[in-house]
Amino acid sequence: MTKAIRPIVLGVLGLLWLAPVYLLIVNAAKLPADYSSAEVWKPAFGGALLDNMRDAWERADLSVTVLSTAIYSLTGPLIGVLIGAGVGFAIVALRLRHGFWWFVFVFGGTVFPIQMILMPLFVGYADAGLYDTRLGLILVYSVISVPFSAFVMRNFFSGIAHHVFEAAVMDGATTWRIFWRIYLPMSGSALVAIFILQATFIWNDLLLGLTLSQSDDVRPIMPALTSLQSTYGGSAMPVVLAGGLLVSIPTVLLFLATQRIFSRGLALGQF
Amino acid sequence: MKTSTKFAIASVAAGALLLTACGDDSDDDGDNTSGGGGAGGGEESVESSGTLSFYTDKAAWEPQFDRVSEVSEDEIGFDLDFTGYSDSDAYTAFIKQSFRTDEKPTLFTWHTGDKLGELVDEGLVAPTSEIWSEAISNGDIPADLEQYYTYDGEQYCVPLHVSYWVMYYNTHVFDEHGLQPPQTWDDLINIADTLAAEGVPAFYQTNILFSFVWFQTLLAGSDPDLYEALATGEASYTDPGVVAAMEQWREMMEAGYFSDPGAADDPQVLLNNGDVAMLNFGTFFTGALNELGMVSGEDYDLFVIPNVDPSLEQTSLIVESGPLCAAEEADDRAEALNYFDWWVTADAQSAWADARGDVSFNPGAEVNDERLADLGEQAGSDDVRLIERYFEATPPSVLTVALDEFGAFVTNPGDPMPHLEAIQAEAEAHWANQ
Amino acid sequence: MTATFAQQEAPAGTGRGSGSGGPRPYRWSAWGFTAPGVLIVAVLLYLPFLWTTFLSFTRYNGLGSPEWAGLDNYQAMFSDPALLTSLRNTALWVAGTIIVPVGFGLLIAVLTYNMRFGAWFRLPFLIPYAISGVAVGVIWSFILQSGGALSQALDTVGVPGADSRWLLDAPLNTFVMILAAAWQASGVNALLFVIGLQSIPKEPVEAARVDGASGWRLFRSILWPMLRPLTTVVVGLSIVASLKTFDVVWVMTQGGPGRSSETLAITMYRETFVDSRYGLGGAVSVFLTVVTLTASIAYLRRQLSERKAL
């Protein structure tokens, strides 16, 4: 009996959760002149969706930003995850002295309101020649990923018994090798989770990209997309929604593609 | 270890850069203030073609700027490297901070009033007095506009755009209810009554950002002198005239003339769908309506809002003018000023008005939309008194409080006094500091 | 396999304790692993924040040089009655975030745990996080506007409340925005809980099952204790994120109407960016940071550190 209840409960909740997504899709598929807030639930299918997407794509000139955004979303979290995992490893496995406080120091990076570090960061970047460079953005996106990654990995590693480490040392492995060959492979699902969450965050970042870059081939995609919406008249609502939907496709695919990893039995259990 | 050492080195290097950079900052600041922002620019030779960096908070206008940029490249050899912000506040902060760096904005859009005054005080924007005197004498810029660009007798920046605040209406809704554009305020109220009886809100209003619009219309239409005195701190927000305007506003809300102030829909959509009959907005709004496929004169039309007080001699028309500025210390300051020379000409303005579908400040510019062309002429006549928009006319700190109070007032219409007292308290604090 | 795992949480840096005692053979290596993280965070996050902290003791409008103002900004901040509303709303956000998205995320994780096609059932809750902020803001604005999608739906189903002014009346506006934020955050929390559940070895679970434990008892006695490392992560992150709540509120109400839905982060943004009072905005952000740090340290210390006095 319980077996049947679970999928039903989850299915109903899931549908409820997807209701806003439904609204997003049907309203993105309406002709700009047909859109009305009194009829948001009314279904609409057909060619208008593609037209609206094309319109958003061209208006916001998204094509030039896709490549650089993809670079940031891949490199930033990758570097961030590794550095963060390194911190976690040092604290848990290598028992860094005053580990808790070093952890708090790194974690403190997420505590600062991002809006308040934007302007000093911009000035520093401009003076250091990092403003409007891809390197600069990769750097900042890596840093942004470090505290979260350190937090998750630190706690994840704490679930691995210390004698795994001791046994490896007995076999003559270096700490670098233990990190790289034992701890990281054991943490597959955690690493992937951090990676996709941070990649999505970076893909969707508006503020950092807006403030630290200017030229078309450096600026990420969100600042370009939001130009569709502005006080001084932007695009019609369905076009804005279609644009939002369009740029969400890569991140949704990323989640879809990595689901297998979060299926039961693939993670630590296999070690 | 390899990778991690590399990162360590990279981050140490970055840190060192940033540290030295911070050191430089203070020096820069010193230069800025002690140098008094004198005649920067220098003696370098002026280029005859190239690209000028251009920043704006009107990100949605990118296609239009691109078109003008193409025209300017053809005509004077300079095009614009466009960077758009959609959030005006973040933009303001960014531009201000950029003056401390080497990334000074060659050309940027701004706001008149105290916001431009701040930059002028610090010597950050290039004076444009020569361009102005020439443009006024050959008729490129109407002399009326000069006051908004003048600080201590000198002019700064040139107009980017001019918009008049008028009433847009949905012609189909008017036809359906047998309505004609009003000649007097009473006509307008009659129209609103007719519509209210049919359950159609006559006017659009919102509690975010544009919450000041009806305050501005009602006060400027009943006592324009009082309206202007508020902006300069000579009158109080608790003045009986201001209270009366607020009371009238409340009565109109209670009579059901207004749309829901919390509506999240774009106003152009509401007008297009006939969810509101009329929209009190700047002429830059034409572009948004055309975007929806609405045709001027067929689907929508506009009229100048009649004065609330019919005994006033001139019709109060709210005007908004946004400046295009050049950084005093930008490397290509001279080129930027040359660009201004071109920008104010009728040719450039025809291209701009055409791209934007808006009026131009230059009376010689061709405006394709007939209604807007008429409006432009009307604005220049003696029957009209141009009044600066509340947004620019009011000191920023007072404005922030006022926008919140008006927003709260339209959300829960009630006694206006507490709201006015809150604004007045901020106004007094502001003027006491001056 | 199970042998490689500690049965109970084995918090870091435990065992040898902090400070005195025990040899630390990997001191240099530990430093090598920690340094990159510490350095880049220090340079790119701490350094800029130091500048903000400095500004909080000055008067500065973004132009020219900051003027020293001592504690004036802090005094102004604490004497502003709007700060109280802001604090109250922020407290609501913290409580709401710990209850709704954390609780819901846990529920989703446990329900999909060890279930056929579990990952696919989980997907609907993850998709909201993957959708770009621009679209999410627009969608929720028209769900929550008066007479909007939510009201229309309630009206159709015949549930009372259809005429509520969701975003206009306080504190209702804060409550519904917490739910909107929960829509995005629950899936992420579920994912983190799933990682925790996956790292739990099968044997003790099976053993408990053989002993007849199931449902609530199995969860209470086996899963919940073993989930602790990741629960700490989820709750810790939620505390920080909720104290800094900004985006949702800024998109939907900008803290209004009449400042009624303002959070501390909105107050900070408003003072700094809208009003160009960098000093006052800096003071609010320092205050916010101190609150956030204190709350996180208090929480994490209890969760992460060994029981013995630190």
Automatic annotation (TrEMBL), chain A:
It is found in: Cell membrane. Belongs to the binding-protein-dependent transport system permease family. The chain crosses the membrane at residues 70-93, 100-123, 135-157, 178-203, 236-257. It is a multi-pass membrane protein. PROSITE patterns: ABC_TM1. CDD domains: TM_PBP2. GO terms for cellular component: plasma membrane. Residues 66-258 form the ABC transmembrane type-1 domain. It comes from the Bacteria. GO terms for biological process: transmembrane transport. Keywords: Cell membrane, Membrane, Transmembrane, Transmembrane helix, Transport. This is Carbohydrate ABC transporter permease.
From TrEMBL, chain B:
PROSITE patterns: PROKAR_LIPOPROTEIN (PS51257). Keywords: Signal. Coiled coil: none annotated. Residues 33-43 have a biased composition (Gly residues). InterPro entries: Bact_solute-bd_prot1, SBP. It holds the Pfam family SBP_bac_8. Transmembrane segments: none annotated. Residues 24-48 are annotated as: Disordered. Residues 1-23 form the signal peptide. The keyword Signal applies. This is Carbohydrate ABC transporter substrate-binding protein.
